[in-house]
Amino acid sequence: MNDSPSTAPLLRVTDLRKDYVARGFGRTTSVTHAVKGVSFDIEAGQTYALVGESGSGKTTTGRMICRLEDITSGSVELDGHDYTHEPERELRRSLRGSVQMVFQDPFSALNPRKTIGAAIEETLRIRGMGASRDERHDLAVAALERVGFSQWHYGRYPHQFSGGQLQRVSVARSLAVRPRLVVLDESVSALDVSIQAQVLNLLQELKTEFSLSYLFITHDLSVVRFMADRIGVLRMGEMVEEGDVSQIFEHPQSEYTRLLLGSVPIPDPTRRQLVS
Question: Hey, what domains does the chain have and what are their CATH numbers?
Answer without folding.
Answer: 7-98+230-260 (3.40.50.300)
